[in-house]
Design goal:
Length: about 250
């Protein structure tokens, strides 16, 4: 299988703090890949470097064989990083229409919007203004926006935040369905249970380094995944701004 994501020596420093430290990572196409670690481990910073939103201090990354952040690397990529932002006075459907109109005009845009709203479980509230949405509904709309152009690679940062138990089950089902259709899903999470239930492979991140990596079934079967994760300390409690910026 070809690599959808490749990182070699990927490093990001903010002053004296190293957010991502010599990260080596390979994500094969067609997988649901879990990127697991506590808040402050460097997950969001890694995603930002993959999308070209943050420039690495050292090392490099490639998406589908193209340098991360280049136009070629971003073609066919959908992403939801941190809590998505929308126009609060527009409806969910109109927000997606605005996003869709920012790219090349394609036939069937209305149908594509209807499809992703249905996939995200928002068909019944698509005509409501986003200012009336709960956090979970905004997360669903962010997922719909990420799916809008039918990406081959989907990068998701804590996508189940704010979802109720039923929404989390629907999300897991959707991720597996997308993988079944050939989409690569890169899922950043601090929830061990989420990664265990939806992912094929997992990398456990601590202080910007991968400390354990392998198939979920193999690591979970040997109690390796739980052991690796429980050794980590959630550094989010009482952190200063520098540490929070390195999420």
């Amino acid at each position: 299988m070809s690599a959808a994501i490749e990182c070699r020596g990927l490093t990001k420093r903010y002053g004296a703090r190293t957010a991502v430290n010599q990260l080596d990572l390979t994500v094969q196409a067609g997988q649901v890949f879990g990127f697991l670690g506590p808040n402050g481990a460097g997950k969001t910073t890694t995603l930002r470097m993959l999308l070209g939103l943050v420039r690495p201090t050292a090392g490099g990354a490639w998406l589908n064989g193209q340098p991360a952040g280049s136009p070629a690397s971003l073609a066919g990529v959908g992403a939801m990083i941190e809590e998505p932002a929308f126009h609060p006075w527009l409806t969910g459907r109109r927000n997606l229409d605005v996003i869709a109109s920012s790219g090349p005009r394609t036939a069937g845009r209305a149908d594509a919007i209807a499809d992703v709203l249905s996939q995200a479980g928002l068909a019944g509230v698509a005509g409501h203004k986003v200012k009336t949405y709960s956090q979970g509904m905004r997360q669903r709309l962010g997922l719909a926006a990420a799916l809008l152009r039918r990406p081959a690679l989907l990068l998701l940062d804590e996508p189940s935040n704010g979802l109720d138990p039923a929404g989390i089950r629907e999300f897991r089902t959707l991720m597996r369905a997308l993988a079944g259709e050939g989409t690569t899903v890169f899922l950043s999470s601090h929830l061990l249970s989420e990664v265990e239930q939806v992912c094929d492979q997992v990398a456990v991140l601590s202080d910007g380094r991968v400390i354990s990596q392998g198939p979920v079934t193999e690591l979970a079967g040997q109690d390796g995944l739980e052991e690796a994760f429980l050794t980590l300390t959630d550094r989010n409690s009482g952190e200063n701004g520098d540490a929070a910026a390195a999420r």
